[in-house]
């Protein structure tokens, strides 16, 4: 289970954020919902990662497995999260689902395609956006999106590492945004792709605890922020855990995106990216949702 993190920052002290605890299987989705219920700032997804799609057939009853996912999504939607002003749904997306042809040793492509397409039924029934995964599979991925373009309200292809051509294919779908993290910023070619993504079609994330920006990455030259870190066995509340991609490091992703695109007003960029996040995951009452998330963040300042 990973923890993507989308946010904007006005300065180093005020962080606007939305934690999405990601479900990668039925059991992980149950765990994600349980975690989301522990804190007003946490939300979750329900779905099956492409590398786990064999679990549908291993269950002995793929249709029941799909229905169990639907039941879980409904449960999260019914419970909601009170912020004092309104109720926000705990489950904010279907996923992480999609195609991953770099890891076919975990699940063959035919099974991935079959159950990626099946999960659009969940998005359609629940009227939820999709949290999407695409690795080395852009043609099949976009073919499936095309067949189902009217069955999901919006989506984000997270941790994007594809080519400019792959990017253009995704951007041809008006309801799909592209998620950028450290893995998206490794090479000069990656940075050229990011430069071409319209800001209004982008989100930023950490994919915590993975996908940090390393010193060998092309994007490192734009990083300005840093925090002290200590090894896990010497944990200190004032420090990051060494080697772990902590949520606050999304600031570095923001800095690299700004530097790559030549944007001087990083605060305005952050506000736009945060608005994009709310537009996809909290569309029913955008302004109130943003205010609620900001309020929950301020409580911990």
TrEMBL record:
Belongs to the metallo-dependent hydrolases superfamily. TatD-type hydrolase family. This is TatD related DNase. Keywords: Hydrolase, Metal-binding, Nuclease. The lineage of its organism: Eukaryota, Viridiplantae, Streptophyta, Embryophyta, Tracheophyta. The keyword Nuclease applies. Pfam families: TatD_DNase. A divalent metal cation 2 binds at residues 133, 158. GO terms for cellular component: cytosol. A divalent metal cation 1 binds at residues 96, 207. InterPro entries: Metal_Hydrolase, TatD-like, TatD-type_Hydrolase. PANTHER family: DEOXYRIBONUCLEASE TATDN1 (PTHR10060:SF15), TATD FAMILY DEOXYRIBONUCLEASE (PTHR10060). One of its GO terms (molecular function) is metal ion binding. Coiled coil: none annotated. Gene3D superfamilies: Metal-dependent hydrolases (3.20.20.140).
